[in-house]
Each structure stands twice: as structure tokens, then as C-alpha cells.
């Protein structure tokens, strides 16, 4: 039902007092050509009708405030509300990027300190808070790799960025956008980078390697130090895709394992919801030798005041002003209130929760890499597929249990992949309910496959043509 369908001519949600000044005819205010030729055709309703319409509509949607959301790689964890309140405080939300620096010392201090915290978490030297998303951080990092090789007179020859076959799709896309050639490296039987294949691939053409660790299979690469040495010995740089840092906070610092550049998604790990349609933030942190190439501006603290500065060989701005400030405030508040111990507990609980769920499900679903997982894990629905039920069917059936579907068919190297990230914010009771739902579905595949193939049965809309919805979305209603 659309709002317009509820409209009744003449019905109103408000009443304005009569004008007590002389009204200027509209034709005198707006040139004739810009005047509307016909009625706008807005819905006419009372205020409660509008409120009820939108409230009911919002309840048809699934969100982390409504139920469990184990969307692997995306980290749909619950974010503390208090951080939203802090970001909305007028001292943060009402300032303007063009204000003189001496009137926004608090905001600059917050950015500077966030830079320091992220640098500590990454084990690297200096942060740019400018990129607006993970993929934007990747592009920025790759442009820095390019600038570094240019500075050393090697940009012409160093054209290749090596990327594992388990990588997130944004990695090769960013490499391509930055003007590199993306070379895919295969995974070994334990799910890590195939070290021998890597040795054979590197050379004077290598600009760098992009790696997610733990990778998108939820596995920590046991050979990371060897991998770093191979890349550095070949003259390349190591880029860490830290979009999802939920397994490593306070436990492993990418810089200590050889990485030169890291990006974080504040809108995953640090208290801004991912995929909510709102602004994101993908800061990058770099090692000492790359600080001079960071985007313009960075925040510095000298002679007792905070100020914006342009790094010596900056690649230039990658976004207006200094980035999405509201997201930074939430990340800052999150880091400050958890502290070092709290951040470590986030990761310990994320890993514990993932391993608990994994171990309860591996009897019913094929587990291609049977190892200790980190914050997420990847099952395969191939046993169910053999019985005629696809991973998509399983994901749809989960909706009937009030659970958002996990990420499916990614990473690409796992047949019928089901990627689960429980996150640290869920209780054992919620995890147990999810485990039970997945076990029930596995049983249903054996006993009543037709039921699963027609799922979801209990949602406001049933099974959609997802390709059509994505390719030809109807976003407006034509009058
Ligand atoms: C591993 C990984 N890298 C990069 C990204 C890209 O982040 P964004 O969606 O903010 O561009 C994602 C996003 O889901 C991801 O999971």
C-alpha cells in the first residue's frame, strides 16, 4: 500500500494561522517559466495516519534492532546508542568545516586523538581520516603506493597489485581504479595465501599486495611474516584490508606483522552501522615512510594547538574537508569508553561467539576449512545442494525464523558459501536460537525440501526476483 492510496482530498495534518501581512502574488516572486503548471499531487492525510504508515512500514524491515543479523564480512553488530547521542551534541554537529581553527580546537583534538588511537591499533605511524568508505580507503592507499613508487622512480615498472582469490571484490576494483593491474593469487588448502605461488609471482613489476587477515574465510594467515618478507624483498608494499577488524583489536597489530598501510571501516568495527545508507568512514593508517604521501589535510598538534596540515608529498585531497566527522565522533566515543581492555574483549568475544556457532553447525553443514576461525566462518551448502536445496533457499528459510540471512555465495572460492559473522554483541541465547534454526533447516532439507524452496512464508513480502529488483528498481511512483 502506498501513501497516496490512503490519500483523501482535503484531509490535513496541520493548520497554519491566517497571514497577518500582505501576501505578495507568487508570480512576482518566481519567474513564470519556473512556476508549477499543475498540482503537485501530494498525499492528503492526517498526522497520525502518516506516522502510522511509516512506523508500520519500518516494522516490515529487518534490522539489528529487531533481530539477529549474522551478515558475514559486514559486521552488523549492535552499536551503543550513547555514541549516537554524543555525535549529535551541538558542539560536534553544528560546527562548520570553514570555521577558523581556533574556534574548533575540540573537534581537531578529537580527530588528532582518533588518529593516534587508530595508529596504535594498526601498529603504524599516522592516519588520514578523509576516506568515506572501505573501498575509498583502498583507493587512497593504492594511490599512496603509486606515489611512493613514483617518488622512487619505479612507478613505470611496478604496475601489479597481487590479490588473493578470497579477497573482497572491492580490492581488485580499487587496484584497477588506481591504474594497477590486479593479479590473482590462489589460496592454499588451509585457506591462506599459497606461498609458493606468491614466490613465483613477485618480481620487479610488483607494486604491492592487498590482504585481509583474517581473510574473508575467517582464517588468520599463518604465513603472514613469510608473505610480508616475500613482498618487501621484491620491493613491494603490503596493504591490509582492515574493513573488518573485529578479530584483532588489542591482539594483533597489522603493522607488527609487516603491513605498510591499513584501512579500517569505522562503519563496521567502530560503532557506526554498516549498510545503513548513512555516511561511512574508511580511514587509512600508514607507516613512517609513507606519512609524507597522505591526503591533504592531516591533523597535527604543534605549539599547544591543533591544526590542519598538508603532508610534504601529499596525493592531495580525496574528499571534501577532513571526512565524515560524525562517524569519527562515534568511533572516538566507542574507543574511549571501551579502553584498551574493552577493545580486546570485543575481539575475544567476537572470536569466541564465531567458534561456538561453527562447532555446533559443522555436523549439519560442510565446513571446507576445518580450523579455528576468527570473527566469522564460511560453511558450504553443498550437502544440501546435492539434495536439491540451494544456499539461497536456506538463506530465505532463515527469514522465517526472524533471522537476517548470512552473506551467501561469497567468498567465491567456496561452493554454495554461507558466511556467518555472529559478532560480539549477541548473547548465548541468541546464538543458540540461530544454531537451532540452522539445524532445523538442515533437517527440513532431508524431510521437506519443498517447504524450503518456497520460503520465506512468514515475511511481509515473499520471494522476490532479486536480479530484477537490483537491476530495475522502482524508486518513484509516476503520477
Ligand atoms: C573485507 C572487505 N573489504 C572492503 C570492504 C568495502 O567497504 P565499504 O563497503 O565501506 O566500501 C568490505 C565491505 O563490506 C569488506 O567486507
Structure description:
- It contains 16 helices and twelve strands.
- With 479 residues, the protein is an alpha/beta fold.
- α3 runs antiparallel to α11, α6 packs across α7 and α11 (325-361) packs across α14.
- It has helices at residues 26-29, 47-59, 81-87, 90-93, 105-122, 134-151, 170-177, 195-201, 224-233, 266-269, 325-361, 382-386, 391-400, 428-447, 449-453, 466-471; strands at residues 126-128, 160-164, 181-185, 206-211, 237-242, 261-264, 284-286, 298-302, 305-309, 377-380, 407-408, 417-420.
- It is globular and about 80 Å long.
- The structure holds pyridoxal-5'-phosphate.
- Pyridoxal-5'-phosphate binds at residues 73-74, 133-135, 168, 170, 212, 216, 241, 243-244, 265, 280, 282.
- Pyridoxal-5'-phosphate (PLP) is lined by residues 73-74, 133-135, 168, 170, 212, 216, 241, 243-244, 265, 280, 282.
How does the SSE layout of this entry go?
Elements: H1 26-29, H2 47-59, H3 81-87, H4 90-93, H5 105-122, E1 126-128, H6 134-151, E2 160-164, H7 170-177, E3 181-185, H8 195-201, E4 206-211, H9 224-233, E5 237-242, E6 261-264, H10 266-269, E7 284-286, E8 298-302, E9 305-309, H11 325-361, E10 377-380, H12 382-386, H13 391-400, E11 407-408, E12 417-420, H14 428-447, H15 449-453, H16 466-471
Parallel strand pairs: 2-3, 2-4, 4-5, 5-6
Antiparallel strand pairs: 1-7, 6-7, 8-9, 10-12, 11-12
Helix pairs in contact: 3-11, 5-11, 6-7, 11-14
Pyridoxal-5'-phosphate binds next to α6.
Amino acid at each position: 500500500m502506498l501513501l497516496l492510496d490512503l490519500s483523501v482530498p482535503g484531509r490535513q495534518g496541520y493548520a497554519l494561522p491566517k497571514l497577518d501581512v500582505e501576501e505578495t502574488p507568487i508570480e512576482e516572486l518566481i519567474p513564470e517559466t519556473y512556476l508549477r503548471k499543475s498540482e503537485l499531487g501530494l498525499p492528503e492525510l492526517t498526522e497520525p495516519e502518516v506516522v502510522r504508515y511509516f512506523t508500520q512500514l519500518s516494522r516490515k524491515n529487518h534490522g539489528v534492532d529487531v533481530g539477529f543479523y549474522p551478515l558475514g564480512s559486514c559486521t552488523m553488530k549492535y552499536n551503543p546508542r550513547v555514541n549516537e547521542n554524543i555525535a549529535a551534541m551541538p558542539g560536534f554537529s553544528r560546527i562548520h568545516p570553514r570555521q577558523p581553527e581556533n574556534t574548533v580546537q575540540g573537534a581537531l583534538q578529537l580527530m588528532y586523538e582518533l588518529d593516534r588511537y587508530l595508529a596504535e591499533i594498526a601498529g603504524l605511524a599516522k592516519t588520514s581520516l578523509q576516506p568515506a568508505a572501505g573501498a575509498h580507503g583502498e583507493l587512497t592507499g593504492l594511490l599512496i603506493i603509486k606515489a611512493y613508487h613514483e617518488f622512487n622512480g619505479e612507478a613505470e615498472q611496478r604496475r601489479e597489485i597481487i590479490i588473493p582469490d578470497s579477497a573482497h571484490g572491492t580490492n581488485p576494483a580499487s587496484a584497477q581504479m588506481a591504474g594497477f593491474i590486479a593479479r590473482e593469487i590462489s589460496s592454499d588448502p588451509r585457506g591462506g595465501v599459497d606461498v609458493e605461488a606468491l614466490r613465483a609471482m613477485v618480481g620487479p613489476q610488483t607494486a604491492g599486495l592487498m590482504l585481509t587477515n583474517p581473510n574473508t574465510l575467517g582464517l588468520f594467515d599463518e604465513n603472514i611474516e613469510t608473505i610480508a618478507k616475500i613482498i618487501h624483498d621484491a620491493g613491494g608494499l603490503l596493504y591490509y584490508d582492515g574493513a573488518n577488524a573485529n578479530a584483532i583489536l588489542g591482539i594483533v597489530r597489522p603493522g607488527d606483522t609487516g603491513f605498510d598501510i591499513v584501512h579500517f571501516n569505522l562503519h563496521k568495527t567502530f560503532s557506526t552501522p554498516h549498510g545503513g545508507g548513512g555516511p561511512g568512514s574508511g580511514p587509512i593508517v600508514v607507516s613512517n615512510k609513507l606519512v609524507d604521501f597522505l591526503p591533504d589535510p592531516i591533523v597535527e598538534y604543534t605549539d599547544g594547538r591543533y591544526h590542519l596540515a598538508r603532508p610534504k608529498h601529499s596525493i592531495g585531497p580525496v574528499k571534501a574537508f577532513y571526512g565524515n566527522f560524525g562517524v569519527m565522533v562515534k568511533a572516538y566515543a566507542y574507543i574511549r569508553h571501551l579502553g584498551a581492555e574493552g577493545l580486546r574483549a570485543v575481539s575475544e568475544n567476537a572470536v569466541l561467539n564465531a567458534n561456538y556457532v561453527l562447532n555446533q553447525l559443522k555436523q549439519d553443514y560442510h565446513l571446507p576449512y576445518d580450523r579455528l576461525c576468527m570473527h566469522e566462518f564460511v560453511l558450504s551448502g553443498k550437502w544440501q545442494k546435492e539434495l536439491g536445496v540451494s544456499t539461497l533457499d536456506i538463506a530465505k528459510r532463515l527469514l522465517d525464523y526472524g533471522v537476517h540471512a548470512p552473506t551467501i555465495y561469497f567468498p567465491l572460492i567456496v561452493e554454495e558459501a554461507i558466511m556467518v559473522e555472529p559478532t560480539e554483541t549477541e548473547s548465548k541465547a541468541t546464538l543458540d536460537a540461530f544454531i537451532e534454526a540452522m539445524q532445523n533447516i538442515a533437517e527440513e532439507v532431508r524431510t521437506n525440501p519443498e517447504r524450503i524452496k518456497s520460503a520465506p512464508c512468514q515475511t511481509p513480502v515473499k520471494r522476490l526476483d532479486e536480479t530484477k529488483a537490483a537491476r530495475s528498481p522502482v524508486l518513484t511512483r509516476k503520477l
